[in-house]
Amino acid sequence: MDTELDFTALQAIFENNAAKVEGLIDSYADKKEQLISLLQDVQAEFNYIPQDVIVRISQKLELPLSQVFSVATFFQAFSLKPRGRHTITVCLGTACHVKGGQRLVDKMARDFNLQPGETTGDERFTLETANCLGCCALGPVVVVDGKYESQVNPEKLDKILKKYE
Amino acid sequence: MVEQVRKLLDKKLTDVAALEALRKSLQADKDASRTVISVCGGTGCRASGAEAVVAAFAEEIEKQELAAKIEFKETGCHGFCERGPVVVIGPKKIFYQRVQPEDVPEIIAETIVKGGVVKRLLYTDPATDEEITYEPDVPFYQRQTRLILGANGEIDPTSIDQYIAAGGYTALAKVLAGMKPEAIVKEITEAGLRGRGGGGFPTGRKWQSCRAAEGEVKYVLCNADEGDPGAYQDRSILEGNPHSVIEGMIIGAYAIGARQGYIYVRNEYPLAVEHARAALDQAVEYGLLGDNILGTDFSFRITINKGGGAFVCGESSALIASLEGKVGEPRAKYVHMSEKGLWERPSLLNNVKTWANVPLIINKGADWYSKIGTKGSKGTMIFSLVGKINNSGLVEVPFGITLREMIYDIGGGIPNGKKFKAVQTGGPSGGCIPEEFLDTPVDFDELTKLGSMMGSGGMIVMDEDNCMVDVARYFIEFLKGESCGKCTPCREGLAKLSEILNRITHGQGVPEDLELMADLGEVLHDGALCALGKSAANPVLSTLRYFKDEYLAHINEKKCPAGVCHELLTFSIDADKCTGCGVCARNCSTNAISGEKKQPHVINQGMCIKCGVCYDSCKFGAVIKV
To answer: Which residues 6+ apart lie within 8 Å of B553 measured at CB?
Structure first.
C-alpha cells in the first residue's frame, strides 16, 4: 500500500535540519569515497534519505547525481521513502526459511496488507526483510526497532507487535 | 602493579619488551583460582535476553558486595546459541544454559557463595538424559577443536588487556622482533592455510603475489561482509575477539608492505561494528596500530567501512567498488586484486576467519598447523550448524570430520524424531547433500566433488518436512534479488529460473522444465561475470541431481511430498481429533472455517487460501494437509 505523505510536514522537518545536513555533508568533504557511510549517517538522522539531501550531496561533494542516486538505490540498507514509527525486520536467511520465516511475512501481508519495503497507512510499521541476521540457531528471528526476538511463530509475532503502537 | 607499569608506559607501548612487561604484569595480577562469571554477550544470547542477565548479575554482585572477590565479565559468543543465554562459572567452568534474570540470585547464593551447583540450569544430554555440569563435558563442545573460537568465551572483547593477558599480540611481537616479511609469507604458505571466505584459494600464494606486485602503496582488506544466509561465524569472531583479526591484519600488512587497511563489515552486524571500532581505538592507544608500531619504523592504520546490505559485495571486486564509494558491481578479473585492487593498487583481501588464523600460525608454526586437517585442507573450520538440528550453534572442527559426526555426534541429530533429508552447505552457491553421502569427510575438495562447496561454513540441516524444490526456489529468489544486474546471463538467467521454479511449486510445471533449467545452469556457469552468477544455478543443479523425484512429484502428480508448497496442498479437519475449540476459525483470515462450539469444524475449500494458519494454530493435530 502506498503511504500518504504529508509533504509540508516533511519539508518543515527538513528545513529545520538543514544546518545539520550541511554539517554532515561537510564532514565528508575530504573523504567522498565514504559515500555509503555518509548515506548511512543521513538515514540514521531522518530514518530515510530525503531527495533533497541526495541532490545536496551531489552538489557539495561534486559527485555525479547519478552516482549518489545509484548507490542510494543499490544497497538494501537505504530507503528513499519515509518509514514508520517501528521497523520490523523479518529474517529470511536459510535457517530462518527452513523454520518458517516466510510465514511471518505472509502474516504481515494478511493482517496489515503490508509487503516488504512498505509502510502502513498509519505509519505504525515498516516491514523489511533481511537475508540473514546471523542468529541462525534461534530462527525464525524478527527484529523490532533493534530488539531481537527469537523463535518467532505467527502467534508470537502477534504478541510482540502489540507492544509497539 | 598494573597501574604502576601503565603510568610508566603512558599506555603507548614503545617496544616489544614493553608489551611483554605489560603482559607479565597483567598475568601476575590474575589469580587462576579466582571465581569468574562469564555471561555470553553475543548477538544470539542477547536475542535470548542476555543483557538483562548481565544487569541482574551486576546488581546482585553489588548487593552482596562481591565485586572485590570475583571477576565478572560479558564475553563474546560461546557458540551454543540455541541454549542461550549461556553463563559459565570458572575456574571449573560450570555450564548454565537458558539462564533468566530471575535465576541470578540463586546462582550467586548457591554457586558463588556456597560452591554448589544449580541443577535445574544444567544441560541435559537428550541422548542419555544425563545432566552435565562442566562446559568441556557437553557433547556439543567435546568433539570440537576450538583454536579460533576458544578465546571467545574467555575474554571480554572490549578489553585489550584481557586479550594481551591471554597471549594476544605475541605473534605481532614475534614478527616485529625479527621475522623477515618473506619468512612470514613462507610460514603462511607452508601452513597450507586456504581462504576461509568460500573459494579456498591458498592464502600464502595470495600474499606472495601481493608482496611481489609493483607499487609503493598497497592495501590490506578484511572481508567481513558475511552475506551467506545461515552463516554467522565472522560476526561471532569480530564481536567476540576483534583483536585476533586486527593482529592478523597487522601481520599481513607487515608482510606485504601496506600502510593502510580496511575492514568491510555488514551493516546488519551493529555489535560487531561497535566492538571492532573499540578494539581499533585501543590498539592505537597502545601503539599497536598507527605510526611506528612498537617503536619500529613500520606504520599501519585500519579504517572500518560499513556495507550497505548487498550480498554481491562479498565478492572481491564488488567489495572494492563499494569501498571506493561506488555501486557494488563486480568487474571481470583479468588482473587479480593482489595486483590492481582498491584504487588500482595491489590489495590483499582475506576473510575474517582467515585473518584470525594468522596469529595462530605465526605463534605455533607452520609445522604444527599443517598437521591438523586433511591433505588438501589444513587447520580447523568453523561451521554454523543450524536448521533442523538439536544442538545448533557455531562448531569448530578440524577438516576431515565426517558430516555424520557433525550432525549426529556434535549436533545431536534431528529434533522431534523426524528423518534427516539433506544438509545444505556453501550458502546460496552451494548445494544440498543427501543422506547417502553423510560419511564424506568434510574439506574444500570433497564438498566440491559432491556438487556443493565449503563456502563460508554454513551448514543448514533439513528434515523430511522440507521441500527440496522449495529450497531451490528460495535460493534462486535470493540470488535474483541480489544479482547486481550488470551481466545478462545472471540478470536474465536467474529471472527465468525463478519463473520456472515458481511455476513448478504452484503446480504448473512441465517435464521439459528440468532440462531447460539444466541448460540455463550451463549458460550461467559459462557466461556470468562473477562467482555469484557462475555458481548461481548450483542449488537447482544439486537438488536435481539428488532429489529429482521431488521435482517429478510436483510436475507430474501436482503434489508436494514434504507438504510445503501450499498451492499443491489441501487443508482439511479430522473430525475425530477436532475438539471444536474454535481457535482455527478465529485465526482464519478468510473465515473459511465454520462449526458449532465443541463440535468438529469444517474448512470451506472454495474460500481457503491455503495459508496454513489453521494447521499451525491447532493444538490437537486435527488439521490435515495433503
So the answer is: B559, B560, B561
